[in-house]
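We store sequence with structure; for instance:
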Amino acid sequence: MRVRTTRISVLAFVVSLVAWLPSAPAAETDPLVPQAAQPYGAGLLRQLRNATTVVPGELPVELRYVTVAESHRPRRVVLDGASDDSYVQARTAFQLVYDDSTLMIDSGMDEQVHRTFGMGAVEPYWPERNAAVQEALLDASLIVITHEHGDHVAGVVRSLDRRAIAGHTVLTKAQAETLVLAPQSPLIRLTPEQVADYLVIDYAGFHPVAPGVVLVKAPGHTPGHQMVFVRLASGTEYLLSADVTWALDGIVDLTQRPQPTSDRIREDRNALRYQIQWLNVIETTTNVVVVPSHDSVYLEDLEQRGLITEGLASD
């Protein structure tokens, strides 16, 4: 599905878009210092829907996903006040399929990075699936990263084809700063010289990057965390909420991760509270399909309902 002319036109649009999209005034701040969180506006969904048509072109036709690894945790580590019942945390990457190209959302991870999440346990990892993700990253017209944790970004920073992939990978300024100054693991650290290989953007609020695809700024889980709003040609709409919560129940029940988990990750719980409140409204009052990155049971349910497809499209 490589379509070089499509890639060039989309990337040119992404780079030029930064210059004219309206931005809120911002004071000079130190990198990695969280700013005061604000509630998400009641009109944001309407703005996101309008923004899906800003980038010219045909809308995507399908949303796919692949699980490259799993982490098995008690639910009490995932949701505040939950039980000791088992929770399967899928380590995923997503793919939007267009008629003539693809767009990747997140990038998988190699087994060495996967082992850093195991807390000493050996947990499921599928190298052949991650190899398929690497091929999809090379073939994609564009790659966006929801945030700078290893299970989401390692595929674009540790790949043997890193420079080729970086040329069509969008990182936000906050993501790049974290990867240089304070990465989750030394395994995913970037140098300033390496950052120059990527398409680094900065935006306020939301930012259209491709036909039917809008980034939504959502710092809290990490400084560079963002969600992705998607509209398909069929009219189906998705909000990929990434790691705002690891389980859909966190959105439905307005429940964050427990305090010790948040402290370990260094989350901004106030920012997450606003995000979860907004996602709860989207999930309970609209037809938008909210998609957390890690909820294995819910992802399987979405597949059974025909809303997403497991496995990546190939040439």
Summary: The chain has one domain: 4-18+44-310. The longest helix spans residues 4-20.
